[in-house]
Design a protein that fits this description.
375 residues, alpha+beta, seven-stranded mixed beta sheet, two-stranded parallel ribbon, 14 helices, elongated
């Protein structure tokens, strides 16, 4: 009889490799499943603390309705498996697995999920008694474990961000984006709702994920992150989004011209960066900075400052404003997606919005003395 930790499990087989599927209390995760091999033999990517923190925040916010996928490990030695009477055939059986006390585990998938759960156990007593699915492969060879990690990550197809937004009814920014694209004249029937990006020959202006991202930037800026989405109501998200796109529609005739035909939109895209989601992010970030600068909540209060700036900005591929900011190269309609250049473009746009000037020259600007207070 083998000594070890007994867990209920289903035994299976893939090729020549045996594996087990089990479901264990979360408290087990910090005591049993550990990767104790030297760094040179690791079969997983390095732990990214920020990714783990994001998962922790997600579980905290949705502790009654969270979803955590199975954790996958490689166990270096097989344990003793005792099938239940009549529980299945040789390669598929329900029973009890005895995990040897001297076995070693290597993480193949889910190390950030595991770390997030472990970190939350002390602050959430209920989480200790909840369970997580665990998949255990029997494999001791580090080269084969690395190959398993590679195989697991080479075949899945990542879900597009737009599709993820389309299915998300928890996040107020996702809900707000789906409301906006059906209410605002600029966006109705002009948003790609499934694919991650808009093709150059598409009739659509932006992707759904770009609209969601724009809404976030209106509340946290170009470089900001929404840490707690639930503190923003759907109503305020939609309201600010409507105000923002109203200003764009009033200030930029390109949106009306682009609806004439696909050919007209394609022609505009060849000369302008206005229909780039990266440009939209910079515009939203500059608008956020203007709201803070004037200490107001509604964009409608800043119409006389923001609208003239939006009307005068040169969005062409030869724009001095954006070339100087490093946001584009001369003659290019593909803005840089690097944070440094996006922030430079954001600040350049903000300078125009801030003082009410409609000049893009680089001479020093007067600082506006106007201070608008929200009533």
């Amino acid at each position: 009889m083998e000594f070890g930790i007994k867990v209920p499990a289903i035994r299976g087989k893939q090729g020549k490799r045996i594996f087990y599927v089990t479901n264990l209390p979360n408290d087990f995760l910090r005591n049993i499943f550990k990767d104790v091999k030297p760094a040179a033999e690791k079969s997983q990517r390095p732990l990214d603390p920020r990714h783990s923190e994001d998962i922790k925040a997600y579980i905290r916010l949705n502790h009654l309705d969270y979803v955590i996928g199975a954790l996958t490990y490689a166990m270096d030695i097989d344990g003793e498996f005792t099938p239940l009477t009549g529980a299945g055939k040789e390669n598929f059986a329900l029973g009890e697995l005895t995990i040897p006390l001297n076995s070693t585990f290597s993480s193949l998938d889910g190390q950030h999920r595991r770390q997030a759960l472990i970190d939350l156990l002390d602050e959430n007593e209920q989480l200790r008694h909840e369970t997580t699915a665990v998949l255990i492969y029997v494999e001791s060879d580090v080269v084969k474990k690395r190959q398993m990690f590679s195989d697991m990550n080479s075949t899945p197809k990542k879900v597009s961000k737009s599709l993820n937004v389309a299915f998300d009814y928890r996040d107020p920014f996702a809900r707000g984006a789906k409301i906006l694209i059906r209410k605002h004249p600029i966006l109705v029937n002009r948003v790609e709702e499934l694919a991650p990006r808009v093709k150059s020959d598409s009739k659509n202006f932006y992707s759904l994920s770009a609209i969601q991202d724009t809404l976030k930037k209106l509340f946290v800026g170009s470089a900001g992150r929404v840490v707690d989405p639930q503190k923003y109501t759907e109503e305020i998200v939609v309201q600010r989004g409507m105000d923002f796109f109203n200003l764009l529609q009033e200030a930029r005739p390109e949106y009306t011209e682009a609806t004439v035909s696909i050919e007209k939109l394609i022609a505009i895209r060849k000369e302008s960066i206005l229909f780039s989601s990266t440009t939209l992010r910079a515009l939203a970030g500059a608008t956020y900075k203007s709201l803070n600068y004037y200490s107001v909540d509604r964009l409608i209060s800043l119409r006389k400052h923001i609208k003239p700036a939006l009307m005068e900005i040169d969005f062409s591929s030869n724009s001095k404003l954006f070339i100087k900011a490093g946001f584009i190269q001369r003659g290019s309609v593909t803005p840089s997606a690097r944070n440094q250049e996006i922030m430079a473009a954001t600040n350049a746009i903000f300078e125009l919005m801030k003082d009410g000037s409609v000049s893009e020259e680089s001479s020093p600007r007067r600082k506006s003395k106007i201070k608008i207070k929200e009533r």
